[in-house]
């Protein structure tokens, strides 16, 4: 969404289960009583990095030793546990500062700037990762030309159960707008 809005070389945009507001997603995925603890952890990590230490990291999904992960939903763990979902070099780790940067990522502010480039948004109707309601609100704020495709399921389904539909509509969008 951001690149589609700011890069004049982009001809059309396909955004599949997009992050719309890192901050809103963060607020909904973290319990209110954990927000201060998370903020303290981010500050401590920043201070360690400024002092020359390596950034602290967390598991992306829980590991075999039952160490907790950032993503804990059964759907996320199932998807990210499959070897075909990740390259051989994938390390089940994410830095705390990456989590902070994801929290601060706000593509919604660019949505109206995409036009007049054609925008296709593929949104999962039960997405608790990138949040269905935020995606639908962003789509409503986007200017024409635009198209919305709803797929049935949660965030990861666009890569598995609904992959055929999600990839087909994206391909058709690219053919329509890049081949003319």
Which SSEs are present, and which pair or pack?
Elements: H1 2-6, E1 13-16, H2 22-29, H3 32-50, E2 57-59, H4 74-81, E3 93-95, H5 96-103, E4 119-124, H6 132-141, E5 146-151, H7 163-178
Parallel strand pairs: 1-4, 4-5
Antiparallel strand pairs: 2-3
Count of separate DSSP helical elements? 7
Shape: globular
Low-confidence stretches: none
Number of beta-strand segments? 5
Q: Strand arrangement, largest sheet?
A: 1-4-5
User: Strand fraction band?
Assistant: 5-15%
Average pLDDT over all residues? 93
Rounded to an integer, what's the Rg over CA atoms?
18 Å
- Helix share bin: 40-55%
Largest sheet: 3 strands, parallel
Distance between the termini: 22 Å
- Classification by helices and strands: alpha/beta
**Order of helices and strands, N to C?**
HEHHEHEHEHEH
Q: Which features characterize this protein?
A:
alpha/beta; single chain; three-stranded parallel sheet; 180 residues; globular; two-stranded antiparallel sheet; 5 strands
């Amino acid at each position: 969404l951001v690149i589609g809005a700011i890069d004049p070389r982009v001809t059309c945009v396909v955004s599949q289960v997009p992050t719309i507001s890192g901050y809103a997603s963060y607020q909904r995925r973290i319990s209110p009583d954990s927000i201060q603890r998370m903020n303290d952890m981010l500050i401590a990590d920043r201070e360690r990095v400024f002092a020359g230490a390596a950034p602290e990291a967390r598991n992306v999904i829980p590991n075999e030793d039952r160490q907790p992960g950032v993503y804990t939903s059964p759907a996320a763990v199932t998807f990210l546990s499959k070897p075909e979902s990740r390259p051989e070099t994938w390390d089940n780790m994410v830095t705390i500062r990456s989590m902070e940067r994801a929290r601060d990522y706000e593509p919604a502010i660019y949505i109206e700037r995409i036009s007049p480039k054609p925008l296709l948004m593929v949104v999962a109707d039960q997405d608790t990762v990138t949040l269905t309601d935020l995606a639908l609100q962003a789509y409503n704020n986007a200017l024409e030309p635009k198209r919305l495709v709803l797929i049935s399921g949660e965030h990861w389904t666009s890569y598995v159960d609904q992959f055929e539909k999600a990839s087909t509509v994206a391909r058709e969008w690219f053919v329509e707008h890049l081949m003319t």
